[in-house]
ER lumen protein retaining receptor (Anisodus tanguticus), 274 residues
Amino acid sequence: MGQKGYQSPARKLLSWVRKQSKKMKILLSIVTAVTLLVTLKLVVHDHNYFFVVAEAIHLIGLLVLIYKLTTLKTCSGLSLKTQVLTAIFLAVRLYCSFLMEADIHTVLDLITLVATLWVIYMMKFKLKSSYMADMDNMPLYYTIVPAAVLAFFVHPNTSHILINRMLWAFCVYLESVSVLPQLRLMQNVQIIEPFSAHYVFALGVARFLGCAHWIIQVYDTAGAYIYLAGRGYFWIPTVFLAEMVQTFILADFCYYYVKSVMSGQLIVRLPTPV
């Protein structure tokens, strides 16, 4: 009987946050983000690990999708267009990585690309009847064209041939907006089942780690890293901005995801757009 009215500390915290004003919620979000950044800076000494972990988390998110597609036999709630955009930027990045790096990032990108292509195949052919084509209504050129135009004008100034430098910039910019069709679909549906929600949350965590790398690098160099010699005057600031944009794009969904998890709900409910 004594346990009937018991609330866990997490639920008490969530209940308190819900009662706060919008400005206070924004302030709490900023404080939380800064706290996480400081913790990462103190705990992780080699900040290049952020990208490795981010790519690994993206792969884990894809494995969650694969589990859903193979066990539940449905792709409802998933954006085929986001998967296509993901395959495009991964293929381009893999090509550039072979030429420029050829390290652990290359291996992770290869595995992630294969997993993404498998998801696309399942959605287009095996589970086509459950695909929400009418809800997945963001045109691909809304993301591909701006990324290509920006890459043409702003790209790294390295010793590699011009087309490869443009391709590298293109995959960076496309990655920053590739999740938009998925978010658009979820906004149309408003109720997100667990596996799709886990996947998008994994993308959010991955992007936060990527963004954390740039913020910490800028902080450690007192801003000098933004204009790193040999990279092109506008290249790194634009990459930094792209990382920030993607992080903020996913931050809103991650808030509702965490809110649902702390409330003990399996389904994420998004607010009705005004």
Observations:
- The beta strands are 191-192, 268-269.
